Amino acid sequence: MLNCKQNSELLSQSLDRPVTLREKVAMRMHLMMCRGCRNFEKQLNFIHKAARELPRKL
Amino acid sequence: MSTVGAIDIDALQDHRSYLLRYAILQLRDPHLADDAVQETLVAAIESRDRFSAQSSLRTWLVGILKHKILDMLRKRAREPELVIPDGEDGNDLLDTLFNKNGHWSEAPRTWENPEQSMENAHFWEIFEQCNQRMPLNTARAFMMREFMEMSTEEICQELTISATNCWVLLHRARLALRECLDLNWFGNAR
Fold first, then answer.
1. Do the Cβ atoms of A58 and B21 come within 8 Å?
2. Who contacts A40 (Cβ-Cβ below 8 Å, separation ≥6)?
3. Which chain A residues touch B118 with a CB distance below 8 Å?
4. pLDDT averages per 10-residue partition of chain B, 190 residues
5. B100 touches chain A (CB under 8 A)
6. Which of B13, B15, B51, B94 is most buried, by the most CB atoms less than 10 A from its CB?
7. What is the H or E stretch that residue B40 is in?
């Protein structure tokens, strides 16, 4: 079972490398039970999107 | 108006301040950034024949600037006296955000309408400031990944670190940025 720290690592890595099915399932299981991590996942995706938008906002 | 080859020299100057801000974000040193932009403009004039009018001038200039920035980072890496120690181990951050069982010390709260923030100029100022506050290598890895859109492999090569270390830096960068935005933007915005 993943804890929040490990889950946050995997969520971050899924932006940088292909994740395995096993990792994906582990993340989904954790996210189903953890509201804080669900918020974190959304925020991570937002930061990813915002950083790629930054060159257009300079 | 002076036109050399396919490029209007005045048009190059129009992009200067944009290029400078781009370079400062990555190099975090206004003087180095200024040098990088200067070299970019010179290179643009020298290789103006290779500019095709189909692509945007800014995109083309940024492409050259990226190479100049990487050159400067490489040069700096070879000059040890310029390396700035900045307590990069980052364990402090992780220890603050997570307790010893790996649970959030304070679970991330909901951000209201983050998309709307992207329309707000002040949000982008905070975003830039939060980037500048990260430790040097953490910020550098993050900016290479998200801002310059380099792959993990390319970043590993540039920073001469392993893929695992690269993921660790990117994870810390995102946590730090999330924390900074939460405290300085989403906390106040409501």
1. yes
2. A4, A8, A11, B108, B178
3. 50, 53, 57
4. 63 88 88 94 87 83 93 74 47 86 94 92 92 88 92 90 92 94 78
5. no
6. B15
7. helix B30-46
Q: Which two three-digit tokens encode residue B59?
A: 């995109």
When scoring B26, B60, B104 by the number of chain A Cβ atoms within 10 A, the one with the most, hence best to mutate, is B104
User: pTM for this structure?
Assistant: 0.82
In this predicted structure, the answer to whether residue A14 has a pLDDT above a threshold of 50 is yes
Instruction: For residue A20, give how far its alpha carbon lies from the nearest alpha carbon of chain B (Å).
Output: 16
Tokens of A30: 């954790």
Q: Identify which of B91, B87, B83, B69 has the alpha carbon closest to the alpha carbon of residue B158.
A: B69
Find the DSSP H helices in chain A: 4-13, 21-33, 35-57
Confidence at residue B188, expressed as pLDDT on a 0 to 100 scale: 59
Backbone phi, psi, residue A32, to 5°: -60, -35
- Across the interface, do B115 and A46 touch by the CB < 8 Å criterion? yes
What average pLDDT score do residues A32-41 get?
Answer: 96
Contact B167, B175 (CB under 8 A): no
